[in-house]
Structure formats: structure tokens, C-alpha cells
Design brief:
The complex is a heterodimer of chains A (about 450) and B (about 375).
Chain A (H helix, E strand, L loop, with lengths): L17 H15 L7 E5 L14 E4 L5 H11 L4 E7 H6 L1 H10 L4 E6 L2 E2 L5 E2 L23 H7 L4 E6 L5 H10 L4 E6 L14 H11 L2 E4 L8 H11 L20 E9 L4 H14 L3 E8 L7 E9 L13 E4 L2 H6 L12 E5 L10 E5 L11 H13 L4 H11 L2 H15 L10
Parallel strand pairs in A: 1-2, 1-3, 3-4, 4-8, 7-8, 10-13, 13-14, 14-15
Antiparallel strand pairs in A: 5-6, 7-9, 10-12, 11-12
Helix pairs in contact in A: 1-6, 9-11, 9-12, 11-13, 12-13
Chain B lengths: L2 H12 L3 E4 L6 H10 L6 E4 L3 H13 L4 E5 L1 H16 L4 E7 L16 H6 L8 E3 L4 H18 L2 E7 H4 L2 E2 L45 E3 L13 H16 L8 E4 L6 E5 L3 H14 L4 E6 L1 E3 L3 H8 L4 E6 L5 H9 L4 E5 L8 H13 L1
Parallel strand pairs in B: 1-2, 1-3, 3-4, 4-6, 5-6, 10-11, 10-13, 13-14
Antiparallel strand pairs in B: 5-12, 9-11
Classes of the chains: A alpha/beta (about 450), B alpha/beta (about 375).
Pfam families (chain A): POR, TPP_enzyme_C
Keywords (chain A): Oxidoreductase, Pyruvate
GO molecular function, one term (chain A): oxidoreductase activity, acting on the aldehyde or oxo group of donors, iron-sulfur protein as acceptor
């Protein structure tokens, strides 16, 4: 097979740079794999290693520092048949560490070449995450204070199933690159080399020394026992083939009736675990089924299992622009947490406002008419208060008939919740009110 | 449905087949929504290790030929920055849904605001333009997401859908039969002859071939010539950046989306966008009912600034008032465009929506000042 190197762009690395040896080794591996230029994507990022893509006549994707694996992931998922090789320096491994770890865990069929020359060659020879502690660098003494990262031990610990460490002078480098390219999963090749431009002057190392350094750090030969597993892309393709389309985007036909002209805003003030949002949703769905316009805003703590849970449901016979409730028509008071979160509403209540208030939850003074409910005496548990309050709300606002609400619940709720909810709605509707119902 | 659900439906309608994201309130339900719909359609959803990886994977997938989208909120957008300039400079089609939340920094995760209006436009290196579309509710979320994909494909640039918490997470009734569904546009592919990845004709937009396809394609974040190789030639560089600016800004008349509600004889123009436009519309109805003349403009394209729309709307009035959910951002653009007309401002960034009555009071105050 012919070389995949770019005939119009010969390599321009510094004389003696190890990257050039890695370049030719990779090209030889491609040739032995019989790869055509269009079958290969070289993904590089920043620094001298980032020049790599230019010198190949293949597809090339050159991006930002440390992010090569992120681009390679998108490319490989979109073009599963391409041979995708990410090339990074030790600088890229440092800045893109999270991406390296994620690629190890994910096990997408990519090959990562780490061109490891222990410093930032392009910016002045500063220390990188792999610089030995006894090295002299452009960052003065700072590298003496930090332990260098062992790329191979790190990626193996993170789950990489195929890990190679070689000196750039190693006789079997091409063979090892070939194995890495053939490996059906995430393969990492940590190639140790020399930077004549920035590193060698203050840190004289011979090729023979380099072999010794690799031997002392530990040679890695390929498959990592215990890390071999299913390749991500093929697993994804298989799962995708079986994934059911779960979204139901069919609309809801208006079929019921509602006794409402204008707007009606209800605030449900409760606590996490009381199914406040579910009750708000059912109230909204009853309105949708009755052909009303509806908005539902929810407010809850990001702690999820604790704190206030509030639903603001606005029903309207006309289209709704402003989806807020300036003056509530009804307030359902279920827990102290919700009352405290909405402390600013009470002076906006008028005598027309219906307040359905759990007897054990105090509220500030207000002008509304109160329906006091002793949920304990009714034997209604905390988690059922919100649902039962819908029965009261329907009866004492008169917007929906209890039967319409029950039908909305039957059509909307999961079978496991349905029977209990219907009973709660009817139980709520039986609670005597603050005055006579409108209908 | 809520705004995030509408974004998901719009994306699927527009042909999106790759989504990568990282969980963040209030954008997270876009990730879960895409996870429900894309795999069964043969698409791919990636929950990446962080925001840089999310947008990075989208850039790779987009250049490999798929329509790609990501979604985040303020802190995530900060992390997108480096790759947004990559998408601008390297002409990578991408839709970014930015569900704004109250900031700065971590801010209030479950509270809304429009504090990132300038950040979307200027929050990347180089200062070149992006497109930002601003929905006011779920119906807009659907339509503008489709437009966002169409523009990303047509102009080969990142396009933002600038949603916010109160749009994204407020459920409301939508009559989908009446929602505008623009025809779907795909990127122009290179037809014949040698392929230069960044050579553009008069439109300023280069033709596309996918990375991983039968013709080797070069893509680079570095300054490059038409051939995709790094260059330091000042003339090539200048011509590239001018083209990147021109191809987006010269087309603004074709994607200046807005609602225009003029009142004959009105002395004031009220300008709003996003969720604040909903409060403002209610305020306009009340103002008119009380005898105050107010014309009303809702901008749904924020960047590039639709200057013709603003100038034409402001033509007949003596004063302009801008309301927005921040401490004054877009008002500076309006001032620049309608200069020397006086432009008043009212803004809140306290985590709740502005009420119609607050706007009514501010407009009356501005009218009498």
C-alpha cells in the first residue's frame, strides 16, 4: 500500500524531533492495515502534536487544546466505519484529563496516541503533567513539587482495555500501533520521545536513556486484563435498534365542559412528597380536556425530596400571554414550606379568593374566604392531600363537575394511581364548603 | 407542553440526529427528551462528561454529516466558549439551545432571567457574529428551533435558541396545527471538481462534504485558507474573517423574526423579547384600555440586530422603551439603532417574571418624563 502521508506538506518538526518518528510509524501501520486516505480521520489538538493532521493526506480535524477525544467521539459515532485516531501531547492529556478518563470508561473504538515528551514544546518548554520531578523546565522549579502522571497506569485504572507504552525508538513501535488500530475498542499508545527544541538542552537524554526510562516506568503491551468488554459504538447501535419510540406527540381533543369565562389562577402551596405537581398537572389536564387555555408553572427545591413544592396553574377561556398569577383566585394550602416560599401573595387576596387550608398549616392574615380542612380527621395522608384538594377545588369553584374531573383523572393517571386518586377526588368533593356551591 | 419539549419536537422535525449534552437545570429535560426520541429514529444521544465534551462531540458529528444540537444554561455556556469560536471560525453548523437562568455564576438554578443576551453574541474569541433567536413560548420554541437548524445549515455557523427557565419549564396548551412549521433546509454539498473545504462563492458559505466520507476533508480551528491549511498570510486572514462576518450579517433580512403590533398615533414604542414579551403584551392591552398610545415590537431575532425592523418600528414614535429580564443589555443595541430618539429602560433580574402592572407603571412614568 502507498503511504498516507501528504505529498504536498512534508513534515516540519524540529530536527531530531520524536514526533517525526511517530508520524512515520503511524503511516507504516496504516499501510500495513491497507487503509485508504478517505478511510482514516486524524483528530488532533494543540501544540506540536497538533501539527500531525497536516502531514497526512487523510481526513483531518484539528481542534482546541485537550479536546481531541471529544471531537473524535462525535466523528466516530456519526461515521462508525472510519478509522479514527486522536493525537495528543502530554499537554493535551493534562488539560483534557476528564475526556481521557471518559473515553477509557466509554470504550468507543478510537485510538489515542499520546506523543509524550514531558513538556510544552511550543510555548517555551514549561512543565506538563508528565514532567519528571528532577527535570529542568521553562516553569522553573514548579515540576519538582508535583508528581508526574503515569498515563498508562491512569488510563488502565480508568478502564482502557488496550494500553501500550513504548519509546519512540522501540523496534516494535509500528507493530504495536498496528495492534492498537486493529483493537476493537479504546486503545491508548503512550509514546515517549524527545523534544530537541525545548527539553533536551537542559535535560540531556540519549535514545538509549529513553528506552531505560520506559523500562523503569513499566512497559505496557496491549490488552489490559479485566478491562476488556463490549465496544461502545456497537453496543449503542444494538440498543438503538431495540429502543421503542416512547413519546406520544398526539394532541388532546377538547371534549369536556368548563364553567369559566376569563382567567382563573390557582396556587398549590405544599411540600416535597405531597404530589403537589401531579395534582397541579391533573387540574391543568382537566382544563385542557375541557378546551381551556392553560399554563402550569412549578417551583420546587433542587434538593428534590425536601422543601417546598408549588404549582401555579392558570386556566383561561382566552389565549394566555402573561403566564403568571398576579391575584390568585384560589390558594390551596397544604404545607408550611409552600406558605413560607410564597410569603408575598397574602396581601393580594380578595374576598373572592377561595383558600383551601389544611387545618394544621397556619397562614398570614388575608382577605380570602377560607375552607378549613382537617385532613387528619378525614384520614387523608400527607401524600394524598393535594389530590383530595382537587375535589374541593372543583366543587367550590364550580369550574369542573366532579364527573369531568374524575374522567380527566381516569384518562391521565397511570393505572396504579387511578383508583386511589378517584376515591380521593370524590372524598374531597364531599367536604362541606365555606358557603353554598355555585352549582 | 413546555418550551423544552417544543425544542425537542422542533429539532426532530428539522432533522436533528445527534445530540450531546450535560445535565444542567433548566436545560436537562432537553437531554432526557432527546434520549426518548433520537435513538428510535436512528439518531445518537450522548451524555458527555462535561460541557466541553458535549459541544466538542457535536462539532465532530456535525462535520461528519449529522445535524447536531446541544443544550445548556449559563454556567455551561461559559464552558462552551472555546468551541463556539471554533464553530464560528471553522464554519461548523450547530444549534445551541441556551436555557438562561438567573446569574451571575451559579446564580439561581430554578429561576429565570435573560442575563446572557450579550454573552451569547460576544462570549467567544474573535468577535465574529453568531445568530441568536429568542422564543417567547413553546410555539416559538418549535418554530425557532427549526429556523435555527435551517440557518445553521444555510450559513454554516452556530445558531442559538435563547430560551429561559420560565419558557422551558412552564407547561402550556399549544395548538400544534397552528404552529408555523418552516420547510427544512439542508447544507449545500459540494457537487463536482476538486474540493477546497473553505472556498466560498458569492453567498460566502462554502459547500460541504462530510469528514469520514469518500473525499478527504480538512477541518481546522486554526486560521486557514480556502484549502483548510494553516496560514499566516494577512490578506487571506482578512478575507476569511470578513467573509465570516458578511455571510451572517448580509442575510439578516431573511431571518428577522418579530411580532409587530402598531397603534396608530402612538407616541411610544415598547420593545421586548423572551418571556418578558408575554408580560409586555398584557401590559400593552392594559395601557391601551386606559388610553395610552403604545406600539409594541417583540424581537425574536436578537443577533445580528435586525436594524431595519427596529428603525421602521420606531419611525413614528417620539420615545422608545425597552423591557428585559436583566439590568440593561439589549437596550444598548436599541439606543444605537434608533439614535437620537430617547430610549428608556426597565429591567428586573430577581428571578421572577416582570408583572404586566410593573411594565404599565414604568411606561406611564417614561411617557410623562
Amino acid at each position: 500500500m502507498p503511504s498516507l502521508l501528504n505529498p504536498s506538506r512534508p513534515p516540519v518538526f524540529c530536527p531530531g524531533c520524536s514526533h517525526e518518528r511517530s508520524l512515520h510509524a503511524l503511516d507504516k501501520a496504516f499501510q500495513r492495515l491497507h487503509r485508504q486516505p478517505h478511510e482514516v480521520v486524524i483528530v488532533s489538538d494543540i501544540g506540536c502534536s497538533g501539527l500531525f493532521d497536516v502531514f497526512f493526506a487523510t481526513h483531518a480535524f484539528h481542534g482546541l487544546h485537550g479536546r481531541a477525544l471529544t471531537y473524535a467521539t462525535g466523528i466516530k459515532l456519526a461515521q462508525p466505519h472510519a478509522t479514527v485516531v486522536a493525537v495528543m501531547g502530554d499537554g493535551g492529556v493534562g488539560i483534557g484529563g476528564a475526556h481521557v478518563l471518559a473515553a477509557c470508561r466509554r470504550n468507543l473504538d478510537l485510538t489515542l496516541l499520546v506523543l509524550n515528551n514531558f513538556n510544552f514544546g511550543m510555548t517555551g518548554g514549561q512543565a506538563s503533567c508528565t514532567t519528571p520531578q528532577d527535570a529542568h523546565t521553562g516553569s522553573a522549579f514548579l515540576n519538582t513539587l508535583e508528581t508526574p502522571l503515569d498515563v498508562c497506569r491512569t488510563v488502565a485504572a480508568a478502564g482502557a482495555p488496550f494500553v501500550v507504552r513504548r519509546s519512540v525508538y522501540s523496534q516494535d513501535l509500528v507493530e504495536k500501533l498496528l495492534e492498537a488500530l486493529r483493537y476493537p475498542g479504546f486503545a491508548v499508545v503512550d509514546i515517549w520521545g524527545l523534544c530537541p527544541g525545548r527539553y533536551l538542552k537542559a535535560n540531556p537524554i540519549s535514545p538509549k536513556d529513553m528506552d531505560g526510562m520506559v523500562a523503569r516506568a513499566g512497559v505496557w503491551d496491549g490488552v489490559v486484563a479485566g478491562n476488556e468488554r463490549r465496544e461502545y459504538g456497537s453496543a449503542y447501535a444494538e440498543h438503538r435498534g431495540h429502543a421503542p419510540f416512547v413519546e406520544d406527540w398526539k394532541g388532546i381533543e377538547a371534549q369536556g365542559r368548563a364553567n369559566l369565562v376569563g382567567r382563573h389562577g390557582t396556587l398549590f402551596l405544599g411540600a416535597a412528597g405531597e404530589r403537589v405537581l401531579s395534582a397541579g398537572n391533573l387540574w391543568a389536564m382537566a382544563a385542557v380536556r375541557a378546551g381551556l387555555h392553560v399554563t402550569q408553572k412549578s417551583d420546587y427545591n433542587i434538593t428534590v425530596m425536601r422543601g417546598p413544592s408549588i404549582a401555579e396553574v392558570l386556566l383561561s377561556s382566552d389565549p394566555i400571554d402573561y403566564p403568571g398569577i398576579e391575584e390568585p383566585d384560589a390558594v390551596v394550602v397544604l404545607a408550611r414550606e409552600g406558605v413560607e416560599r410564597m410569603a408575598q401573595i397574602w396581601n393580594r387576596l380578595s374576598e373572592r379568593t377561595l383558600v383551601i387550608q389544611a387545618a394544621d398549616v397556619p397562614v398570614p392574615k388575608h382577605a380570602g374566604r377560607t375552607l378549613m380542612v382537617d385532613f387528619k380527621a378525614l384520614d387523608i395522608a400527607r401524600k394524598n392531600r393535594a389530590m383530595a384538594s382537587l375535589g374541593m377545588l372543583a366543587r367550590w369553584t364550580g369550574i369542573f363537575s366532579i364527573e369531568d374531573l374524575v374522567q380527566a383523572a381516569a384518562a391521565t393517571l397511570a393505572p396504579s394511581q387511578r383508583d386511589g386518586a378517584l376515591q380521593l377526588l370524590r372524598q374531597g368533593a364531599a367536604v362541606p364548603g365555606p358557603g353554598s356551591p355555585r352549582k | 407542553m413546555d418550551g423544552n419539549e417544543a425544542v425537542v419536537q422542533g429539532a426532530v422535525y428539522a432533522g436533528c440526529r445527534f445530540f450531546a449534552g450535560y445535565p444542567i437545570t433548566p436545560a436537562s429535560t432537553i437531554l432526557s427528551g432527546m434520549l426518548n426520541v433520537l435513538p428510535p429514529l436512528g439518531g445518537i444521544v450522548l451524555q458527555a462528561e462535561d460541557e466541553m465534551a458535549s459541544i466538542g462531540a457535536c462539532l465532530g458529528a456535525s462535520m461528519a454529516g449529522l445535524k447536531a444540537m446541544t443544550a445548556t444554561s449559563g454556567p455551561g455556556l461559559s464552558l462552551y466558549s472555546e468551541n463556539i469560536s471554533f464553530a464560528v471560525g471553522s464554519e461548523i453548523p450547530l444549534v445551541i439551545v441556551h436555557v438562561m437562568r438567573q446569574g451571575p455564576s451559579t446564580g439561581a438554578a430554578t429561576r429565570g432571567a435573560d442575563g446572557d443576551v450579550h454573552f451569547m453574541r460576544w462570549g467567544h474569541s474573535g468577535g465574529l457574529p453568531v445568530v441568536v433567536l429568542a422564543p417567547t413560548g413553546p410555539a416559538d420554541c418549535f418554530t425557532l428551533t427549526v429556523h435555527a437548524f435551517n440557518l445553521a445549515e444555510r450559513l454554516r455557523c452556530p445558531v442559538f435558541v435563547a430560551s429561559s427557565k420560565d419558557i422551558a419549564m412552564t407547561r402550556e396548551t399549544v395548538d400544534m396545527e397552528r404552529v408555523e412549521k418552516p420547510p427544512v433546509v439542508d447544507r449545500k454539498t459540494h457537487a463536482k471538481g476538486p474540493f477546497l473545504p473553505f472556498e466560498a462563492g458569492p453567498s460566502g458559505v462554502p459547500a460541504f462534504l462530510p469528514i469520514g466520507g469518500p473525499v478527504p476533508v480538512r477541518q481546522t480551528s486554526s486560521m486557514h485558507g480556502p484549502d483548510g491549511y494553516i496560514t499566516t498570510n494577512p490578506e487571506v486572514i482578512q478575507s476569511l474573517v470578513e467573509r465570516l462576518q458578511y455571510k451572517v450579517e448580509s442575510q439578516i433580512d431573511t431571518f428577522s423574526f418579530y411580532d409587530w403590533d402598531p397603534q396608530p398615533g402612538a407616541s411610544m414604542l415598547l420593545v421586548a423579547y423572551g418571556i418578558t414579551a408575554r408580560s409586555a403584551r398584557e401590559a400593552v392591552l392594559r395601557l391601551r384600555a386606559r388610553g395610552h398610545g403604545v406600539s409594541f415590537l417583540v424581537l425574536k431575532t436578537l443577533w445580528p440586530v435586525p436594524e431595519k425592523v427596529l428603525l421602521s418600528a420606531a419611525e413614528a414614535v417620539h420615545k422608545v422603551m425597552v423591557v428585559e429580564a436583566n439590568l440593561g443589555q439589549y437596550v444598548h443595541e436599541v439606543r444605537r439603532v434608533v439614535c437620537p430618539k430617547p430610549v428608556h429602560f426597565f429591567g428586573l433580574m430577581c428571578g421572577r417574571m416582570m408583572t404586566p402592572e410593573e411594565i404599565v407603571q414604568e411606561v406611564i412614568r417614561a411617557q410623562s418624563s
